[in-house]
Predict the structure of Atypical chemokine receptor 2.
Amino acid sequence: MRQTNAPLRSRAAEPGPRGIAGIPGAPALGVSSAMVTTASPSNLTTEDAAPENGSFYYDYEYLDSVLFLVCTKEEVLSFARIFLPVFYSLIFVLGLGGNSLLLVVLLRYVPRRRMAEVYLLNLAVSNLLFVVTLPFWGISVAWHWVFGSFLCKMVSTLYTINFYSGIFFISCMSLDKYLEIVHAQPLHRLRTRAKSLLLAALVWAVALAISVPDMVFVQVHEHPKGVWSCYPDFGGHGTSWKLFLRFQQNLLGFLLPLLAMIFFYSRIGCVLVRLQPRGLGRALRMAVALVVAFFTFWFPYNLTLFLHSLLDLQIFGDCQVSRDLDYAMQVTESLAFLHCCFTPVLYAFCSRRFRQYLKALLATVLRWRLGPGPTQASLSRGSESSRLTAQEDVTGLNELAQGSAVGSLKQEVVGSH
């Protein structure tokens, strides 16, 4: 039992397995003890009551500061316990399969002489590490946190690192195409393996720095009836930290990468229109698709985060708005997580050369399953032919041997897709 004479401040109630409502860089649903609140203009009384199912750390009751009414969230929690585990499982299966296949193809067939291949490889690794964390959050949402203190910190940190590194590597890929086409950077300049690895290491270092609050503040918490939850505890500065982390997500995880992609691909489009290379229409459609896909996946989630910040600041909102934003957070977050499933398809498997890689990989698998014999010899020849064709495509098209550096590089990029 806790007594206070101060008004109970509205706190954004965003479901998420990580715990603190509305903190980006963590799945948005967390459950712990439910706050059962009764209120009057002169006095507020709150009681902690453990939930029967789940370990959500959640602002379970929202007090309308104008009407002094209790706004319950049980229906939001019930929806989350069903929707989020199912959606996290779907993303896990699709993301694990697609990115594992992409990783195998890259490691087996792509020589990684260019920065684009290095970035794509790191993106696949980032996506894989990201989706691996989702089953932990799914179990936490459906039941409670059962994995202990060490995994609480590790899974939270791993989540945040790969949440941001995936976005950063997508931005790096657009920068690479911009340098290759607009500035016609030769393949031996700024595109060496050493410099590619250095820039990739810098991306990982920045993502690691962003995850420091997870390392410091995230911990397990015990609640009545043996319920445990995993979430960051910021002490008396919870609202300030939530606002800061949301702003960080809006800026570093969406606005700056989006503006960079718009700038890079618009400049690429201008150059391609002027040069009129072979495959112009396909190249322009791909550039537009990349920007539109990024915006579609991430804008709804970031808008919801921003609205939650306004709600925390009491700029607007009431009980119904709070509920609606809770539902919106669950849906838009799940949509944003789909990027790790869609990215391999858009960046790799729609490419002509990656279809060659997949044919070679399939031939290798079939040869291994069928064993020695005439069929194996045929498949072996097909696999080797596909591999040689693919490696030739990676190192450059035939047009690179002739013409100006600008024109040949444009044709290489367009032809690779």
Q: What stands out?
A: Strands lie at 2-4, 34-40, 43-49, 61-64, 69-72, 218-223, 227-232. Residues 1-22, 29-68, 374-417 have pLDDT under 50 and may be disordered. Residues 353-416 form one domain. Residues 88 and 134 are 6 Å apart (CA to CA).
